[in-house]
Amino acid sequence: MPQYRASGWALSTDARLILDVIPPGSCRTLDLGGGNGILRSSLEDRGHRYINLDIRRFANGEPSLIGEAHRLPFKDGIFDIVISKDSFSYFRNPWVVVKEVNRVLRENGKFIILVAFMHPLAGNEFYRYTPLGLRHLLNDFDVSSLDAPLWMFTVFGTAAIDALKRIGLGLLGRPVRRFCQGLDRLSTGGRVQPLSFAAAYRVVARKPSGIEK
């Protein structure tokens, strides 16, 4: 069974990278591999009914449900939004996960993905995705946006953080990461077109109406 979390290398602790593309409202929202539920309070404050699914229990009591992304324990068409933040690279058979997401989403529901590209490799990752690869996997969805919210400075920053850890200064990693992400936002206005130098890609896809699962 795949591990959905990188050991010590979460792609981003900045929930805004997901929250920026999620509207408020009474949506039923599933977080695939949501770990310790970093998105819960923000989404529930916006009116969402949040369900976190992961394969193990965390110290804070998360997730809501222990389960497998390849065999989602839900009925068809019950979610308005499905999120995969930092977890998509860890799915052994991503095409199966995408099919399951399609099944549990209602028509016009959104599938939102944040996935690493140029980023330190975690030992339990299966894949890295290019924009073309993401569009291919999401062929049954309408991709409304595919951008690179983590860009050049974050690429340099992750290399610096790795070096700091090797010399025993790992505590500096969090401020370095936040500083670099801030520089990315300032230099790109928060959204840039997909680039080969991107640290990560963010996708917002919609399940079309009238399409068989």
Explained architecture:
The structure is a single chain. With 213 residues, the chain is of the alpha/beta class. It has a domain at 16-149 and 198-206: Rossmann fold. 28% of the residues lie in helices and 21% in strands. It contains six helices and seven strands, in the order αβαβββαβαβααβ. The chain has helices spanning 16-19, 40-45, 94-104, 131-137, 152-166, 173-188, and strands at residues 28-32, 49-54, 65-66, 79-85, 105-116, 142-147, 200-206. The protein has a seven-stranded mixed sheet. β1, α2 and β2 form a beta-alpha-beta unit. It is globular and about 50 Å long. The chain starts with 15 loop residues before the first helix and ends in a 7-residue tail after the last strand. Mean pLDDT is 84; it is low at 1-11.
Write a brief caption for the model:
By secondary structure, the chain is of the alpha/beta class. It is 28% helix and 21% strand.
